[in-house]
């Protein structure tokens, strides 16, 4: 197992932000992962698990403890049954399942990071979420001190949330098993309106899975949502805030504020989000609160392609990023009475 001391973490994150870790281990087998976790837990050393670093905001002071980078490999496709080691690159794995003619995760192409992190926040985009295809998750349970297999129901998935996110220090994901679909090379039914429109089909129709994947990749690239080291709009964690889910009373209050501020004819986006709940768009709120694309004059700014991505233009510190995030959050709260919640995981800092 590779071991480094006083190791910079910024290069391991897509924000390129954060100070060093006291110790950085890179594990390439499940045994190494488990040994590293057990050792840290036995000695009471704080542990930070890192996959692709695409959903992490690490403080400028870094991490006092052991950072464990998961670099395990394993892609096994047996019929429609896909098992991925935690360290597999997610987007590459999606491409391979589409090439094999399978459906279920094609619209999750281009999402950076590792397969093992996908259950953590129930990764989703363009009408798909991993919770629809995950059959089970094999994880090391730090409380029980053993490897466990969790069924889909036991993962308690919801919008950008799961049991793993609820108990961040309990499970280290080792493998994820997906039940994909063989629809003769076709995608799952296209749910997202923008994807359907771009593909020239009605929502609910199927298209060749490869077309769905390519269309999503194009749409994502146009929004700076596919990693490109040359493009500072992608030095981000993707969406910085989750879309707020409101009760009916909160939604009514929100609509009243929108009408008062922007006029009675303005209708904010609203999507059903379960019994008595409405989801609205964080990007819309940010934009309408006055934080438009490219907002900011420092080294941390809103992406020029998407209002929901906060970005490092090069030379930013985590404090610069957090200052911008707080400004946006306070501005939205003042304008619309809604408090945005950050999507990326913060380490050693809070928003
Ligand atoms: C340009 C861009 C676009 C994005 N688009 C999307 C999108 O469309 N939809 C979406 O949902 N997300 C999106 N994201 C966010 C991010 O890519 C996902 O959340 C991804 O799953 C994070 O994977 P990672 O391996 O990089 O995790 P990391 O950032 O390394 O870690 C994130 C969290 O997961 C934990 N973790 C990582 N691996 C494990 C493991 N094996 N076991 C236990 N815990 C673990 C970490 O400790 C941390 O708490 C985007 C990010 C970027 C930069």
Brief digest:
With 351 residues, this protein is of the alpha+beta class.
Q: Which architecture name of the largest domain does CATH use?
A: 2-Layer Sandwich
Ions, cofactors and other ligands present here are: flavin-adenine dinucleotide
How many separate domains?
3
Placed side by side, the strands forming the largest sheet appear as 6-7-12-10-11
Counting helices, strands and paired strands, the structural category is alpha+beta
Number of helices: 8
Total strands: the figure is 18
CATH topology heading of the largest domain: Uridine Diphospho-n-acetylenolpyruvylglucosamine Reductase, domain 3
The largest pleated sheet is described as: 5 strands, antiparallel
> CATH top level of the largest domain?
Alpha Beta
Let me know the average pLDDT. 97
Based on CA atoms alone, the radius of gyration comes out at 20 Å
What does this structure look like?
Its cofactor is FAD. Cell wall formation. The protein is an alpha+beta fold. The protein folds into three domains: 2-70, Uridine Diphospho-n-acetylenolpyruvylglucosamine Reductase, domain 2 (2-Layer Sandwich), CATH 3.30.43; 75-222, Uridine Diphospho-n-acetylenolpyruvylglucosamine Reductase, domain 3 (2-Layer Sandwich), CATH 3.30.465.10; 232-347, Uridine Diphospho-n-acetylenolpyruvylglucosamine Reductase, domain 1 (Alpha-Beta Complex), CATH 3.90.78. The protein has helices at residues 30-42, 90-99, 163-166, 193-199, 209-222, 248-262, 282-288, 318-336; strands at residues 2-8, 20-27, 47-50, 56-58, 63-70, 75-78, 81-85, 124-125, 128-129, 134-141, 146-151, 171-179, 245-247, 271-272, 277-279, 300-302, 310-312, 345-347. The strands form six sheets. A five-stranded antiparallel beta sheet has the order 6-7-12-10-11. A hairpin with a 2-residue loop joins β6 (75-78) and β7 (81-85). It is globular. The two termini are 34 Å apart. The mean pLDDT is 97. Residues 14, 49-56, 70, 86, 111-114, 116-118, 120-121, 123-125, 168, 171-173, 225, 227, 234, 236-238, 345 line the site of flavin-adenine dinucleotide.
């Amino acid at each position: 197992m590779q071991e480094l001391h006083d190791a910079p973490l910024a290069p391991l994150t897509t924000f390129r932000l954060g100070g060093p870790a006291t110790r950085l281990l890179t594990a390439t087998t499940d045994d190494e992962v488990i040994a590293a976790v057990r050792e840290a837990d036995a000695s009471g050393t704080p542990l930070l698990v890192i996959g692709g670093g695409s959903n992490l905001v690490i403080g400028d002071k870094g991490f006092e403890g052991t950072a464990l980078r998961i670099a395990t490999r394993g892609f096994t496709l047996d019929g429609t049954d896909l098992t991925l080691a935690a360290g597999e690159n997610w987007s590459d794995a999606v491409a391979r399942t589409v090439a094999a003619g399978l459906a279920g995760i094609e619209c999750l192409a281009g999402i950076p990071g590792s397969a093992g992190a996908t259950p953590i926040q129930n990764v989703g985009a363009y009408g798909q979420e991993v919770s629809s295809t995950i059959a089970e998750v094999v994880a090391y349970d730090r409380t029980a001190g053993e490897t466990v297999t969790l069924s889909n129901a036991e993962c308690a998935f919801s919008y950008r949330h799961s049991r793993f996110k609820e108990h961040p220090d309990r499970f280290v994901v080792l493998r994820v098993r997906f039940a994909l679909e063989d629809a003769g090379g076709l995608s799952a039914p296209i749910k997202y309106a923008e994807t359907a429109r771009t593909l020239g089909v009605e929502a609910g129709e199927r298209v060749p899975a490869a077309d769905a994947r390519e269309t999503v990749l194009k749409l994502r690239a146009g929004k700076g949502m596919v990693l490109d080291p040359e493009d500072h709009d992608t030095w981000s964690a993707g969406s910085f805030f989750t879309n707020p889910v409101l009760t009916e009373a909160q939604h009514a209050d929100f609509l009243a504020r929108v009408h008062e501020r922007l006029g009675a004819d303005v209708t904010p986006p609203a999507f059903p989000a379960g019994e008595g709940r409405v989801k609205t768009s964080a990007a819309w709120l940010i934009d309408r609160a006055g934080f438009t694309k490219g907002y900011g004059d420092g080294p941390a700014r809103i992406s020029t392609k998407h209002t929901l991505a906060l970005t490092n233009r090069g030379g930013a510190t985590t404090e610069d990023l957090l200052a911008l995030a707080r400004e946006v959050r306070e501005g939205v709260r003042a304008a619309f009475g809604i408090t945005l919640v950050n999507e990326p995981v913060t380490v050693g800092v809070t928003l």
